[in-house]
Each structure stands twice: as structure tokens, then as C-alpha cells.
Fold:
Amino acid sequence: MSKWFIKGLHADVNRIASENNISRELAILLANRGIIDKNDIDQFLDPRLDRMHKPELMKDIIISGDILQDCIEHGKRIRIIGDYDVDGISSVYILYKALYRAGADVDYVIPDRIQDGYGINQFLVLEAKAQGIDTIVTVDNGISAFSQTKLAKEMGMRVIITDHHDIPEAIPPADAIVNPKQEDCLYPEKMLCGAGIALKLSIHLLERFGLNALDDDSLEIAALATICDVVDLVGENRIIAARGLEKLNNCQNIGLKALLSASGLTGKKLGVYHVGFIIGPSLNASGRLDSAILGLELLLSSRSDEAMAIAIKLRELNEERQSLTRDGVERVENLIESQLGNQSVIVAFDPHIHESVAGIVAGRVKEKYNRPTIVLTRGKEGIKGSARSIEGYHIFDELNKVSHLLERFGGHPMAAGLSLKDANLEQLRELLNRNSRLTEDDLTPKIYIEMQMDPGKFDWNLLSEIEKLEPFGKGNPKPLFGFKGLKIHKAAILGKNSNVLKLIIGKDHTEKLEGVVFSDPEMWVSGAMDSFGKQEVENALAGQRNSICMDIVYYPSVNDYMGRKSIQFVIDSYRFKK
Structure:
């Protein structure tokens, strides 16, 4: 059972509403996000491209531009080395296209997830030298590649590192490092993804040649990566996501248009959901089960028939990935039920889980059990896997405490990757749980509500105001509202797989609003029976008067059915009220 909290409000919302000519409800939503200053509100509600910071504020971006311009003007070869996820693929695309437009002799390499592992490695450095590369540019990786960078420099190559990951103690001896997280970097935005940084470098580089990096599709590709890499959608990330989604809805990229068509999205208004749960996973599937080059080739494709063939292949790979994920989640859940019990830190090993989906499986299990979860499988050289954490448990720090048991590990507070020898598995599980200071309260899911509000107060004007907060995501969550004591006029189980519960709800017997629950309807039926009895549930399912009453957490949405639009309320969580 989750705990519900109303967000603390520490602002004069009446003043905010009056000064900014907005509703009191929107003022509360902004204040709950810490946005109370008039200038900040204006920037948040109007995320214009001209409000982005100058790239030149970023440390080493001018040095990077000098090196790349020298390569272009003197015919020296450049190689981009990327990563195999959406952010990595997008970063390569953005920088490759910019360099190509500027006349560079440039190519790219994306390591294989299983054969090569993450980021630039010694083999890629040696290969680059053997093939006459003058300058290596890493995108979405490289900040931890000290020995690889040192080797490249010793072999006479220049190295530019562009990355957004945390800065290690040993900084690589590169010619330039473009990463806003460096302590001496003055760039105000520290949370750009890899593609956001590649976009900044591209803007700076193309300005040197009288070109505009935002003239083409680079912004929509950066938005794709920004959303899929789950960075905070505030500040410059909000601008990139909002304006990039606008361009994506008028997509001109032949490859993306093919993927939209293959995904059944042509003509639909695209938002964060479509990018994060349909388009992004299809591109990601190439790096998980085939080669990320396939995803990059889709974006670079200039022929519709070729693009459609790749798009169909990516969709097939994503369906395979979904199947592997379902199988992996089932295997871990079986382990938890049969062996792991009530441990506060889940450490599950199954050699049959596909290495490429270990992180997704860990995330799904973590969401269900609200516990830090490490999913391990058989790798090329021993056991390897991924970790996903919850608020209050810094997974990287906890792994650091048991680093003597690990071969390699890396990550941040909420996610990590690791590898270890078989002999250390049981001790790893034991020590992580022994060291854990997680309490029952920590392990109880928490839902944060913007405010209590009668769903009946929502009209099209208020819905339109709330839409000004879009795009929603990390750092700017979709607003959840709460209301107590709603009556149930009617309940119906819908959907091909009977997986949707439709409710007609209201604060009294005269108000009738449409609610929908996308979680297990049978759970609702069972809970209602426990609280009110079988007859009352049967009455509700028959649309007859009944005594069922609920407290709900919900958000408003638009139901567009057969061209008829209506406001419906998606019920995120509920509890029965006797």
C-alpha cells in the first residue's frame, strides 16, 4: 500500500496568479516545482530557442572547434566514437551531420554492446591509428577513458571528449573535454544529455562556417535523446524537448518518418509517451540485440524504401526485446518468491536472462517491489548485470562499499552496471543487505499529490492551462491530483484482454464523470468486495445504485473517440473508503 502526500506549498499563489495572469491552480503547480519568480515563470511557460545559452560558455568548446576546423581545412580525418543507446546514436548523428555539412572527412564507430562493451576501448584506438585517423571525438562516453585517451595521445592522435557522465578522479589527458559537469566549466546547464552536448558543439562549429545547426533535423533528434535518456526536463532540456517535439510532429527525417509509419504513429500528435515508449525503444533495440549502427543508418537514410526496411527490422527487434524482458521479469519474480524472500536489496542471478535487457528487467522489478534491484546474468567473462535503485539508496556508493567483491562497476545514485566472479555472488547479496539502512518507510511507495481537487472542476480552459507545463518527465512530472469520497455510479471491465476498468464517478449521485484505471481490474473488484461486499460490486457492474466509495489520485486527460473529445480522469492510485 502506497503513502500519499500533498506537496508542501511555500509561496503566495494568489499573487503569482495575479501577476502572471494565470489561474490559481496553475500557480500552485508552478510553485510546487519551485518556479515562483516572474522571469522564471515566463521562461518555463515559453521555452523559446533564443533562451538557450551560448555554446561558448562551455569549457573547451572553442578549443574543440579550433581542432575540428583545422581538420576540415587541412583534410585531416575525424572519427566519432559513440554509444549504443538512443542518446549515443543520436549524439553520433548530430555531430556527424554537422561535420559533414562543414566539409569534414569524417566517419563513425559505435561499439558492440556485448563484444566491445561501453565506450572507447584500446582496440578502437589502435584501429583508428591504423586507418589514418587524426582526431577522435567521443560522444556520450569517454570521460572515464583515461588509459585509452593516453594511448591515443602517445600514438600521435588528437582526442576530443564530449560526455555528460559524472567526472571521475582521474581525468583523461584529452586535447579538449566538453562536459558541463567539470568543476571549472561555467556553463549554467549541468544536466544535458550526450546529444544535447553534441548539439552545442555542432552549433558552435557550424557558426564558424556560416551555417545554422538548427536548420536541419538535429533539434528533433536531440529531443529524442533528451527524453529517452531521462534527464530532467527543466531549463535548456525543456527547451530542447519542447521545440524538438514540435519539429518531430512535422518530421522531415526520412528514417524517422519510416519508423513512425511502421509504429502506426503517422498523423498522430507525438508527445513524450510516443518518444519514450515507442520510438526510443525501437532505436534502442538495435543496440541491444543487433548493432546500434542499424539505428544510426535509419536516421541517415536518404531512401524511403531502404528506411522502411530498417524500420520494420527495428520494430521486430523491439518485439523480441519485449519478449526477452517479459521472460526476464518473470524469472526474477520467481526467484524472489521462491528464494530471495523479503530482502531489502534484491540481488537476482539467472544465467538465462539476456545480458542486453538486464537493466530494463531490474527497472521493472524495482518498480513492482519498490526495492533496490540488481539483476545479474552470465556474461562473456563471468557474471555481469545492472542495478536500479529507489530514493534514499545511493546504489553507486553502496557498490563502492563492496567494491572488493567486484571486477568492475560504475554508475550514479539511481543506476549502475557491474561485473563479478561467481564465487563472490552470495557474499555480495549478503553484504549489501547487511549494510542496508533501509526502513519499512523507505520501502513503502510514496505518491506526491499537487493538491486536493474535485475532478468536476476541470474544464477545457483549465486543461489547456495545465498543458502549458508540458512536456512532462523527470524533474517536471505529470501533475497528480487527489480527491476523497468519490461515489461509483458504474463500473465496467473493458479491453481485448480485460485489462481496463472504466468507472463513472462523482462527488455525489448527480455528478457523473468518466474515470479509467489501467491497472488490474480484478484487483479493484477484489478490493471492492472485501470493503463493501459482493452485492455492492455486482450493483456497480450493473450500473445500479451502490455504496462503493473511493479516495483517488488522478490526472485529467483527453479521450478522443470517433472524433468526439471529452475529459476523462486517469486514476493512478485508489483506496476504498467505508
Q: What stands out?
A: The chain has a mean pLDDT of 94. The CA atoms of residues 414 and 482 lie 28 Å apart.
